[in-house]
Amino acid sequence: MQKKLIIPVLIALFVSTAYSQTDHETAWEQKANELVKKASEKIKSYRSMEVEFTYTMENTQMGINEVMSGKVYTKGDKYRMLVGDNVFISDGVTVWNFIDDLWEIHINKVENMEGGLTPTALLDNFETEYRGKFIRQENHNGRMVDLIDMIPVTPQSFFKYRLALDARDQTLVYTIAYDRHGGTYTYAIDKLRPNIEIADSKFVFNRADFPDGVDVIDLR
Prior knowledge:
Layout: H1 2-11, H2 27-44, E1 49-59, E2 64-75, E3 78-83, E4 86-90, E5 94-99, E6 104-109, H3 126-129, E7 130-140, E8 143-152, E9 158-166, E10 172-179, E11 184-194, E12 215-218
Parallel strand pairs: 6-12
Antiparallel strand pairs: 1-2, 1-11, 2-3, 3-4, 4-5, 5-6, 7-8, 8-9, 9-10, 10-11
């Protein structure tokens, strides 16, 4: 479960979009769109980001409760993500995923990745691929947050994403993805540093950085 689903959840962390309201939207959908648009505009204003986060995977039926720390660097459509011993790299065209437990490196085209092509892609396609709904406002660790659910229009591995945005400035606080097997995947933002200098080499895959004997599977 972890190996199949971890990549789309990571991609859901950082989002940007511009989408319009329609006459068919409910008041709750309109409120969700307004809040997410503000959040996306904030993210889009950053030329780069370094984010530290905590990842929690839970499935009570399967007895899974796993917590890992992680970090993601983004610059435009490029990203480098570290979650535990797993590494995800994209130069905006190609994606390289090192899955530690499988001892494999997967290579794919960005356009073939489910749930988004880049860290900013989930909500780039929001207008045509997801429906948003405002759920409620609640206190989360001393912060008031707005909860918004995003439902894919067409079936995906995840049937729902939940975003928690700071009610004051629409900063992303956490995101949860729900799969069809009772699993939840939570990414809580611990620290975000915008507009930092990140060398382009950070987004270049170097085979020598990974252990010998790892299987390389080219899916392009």
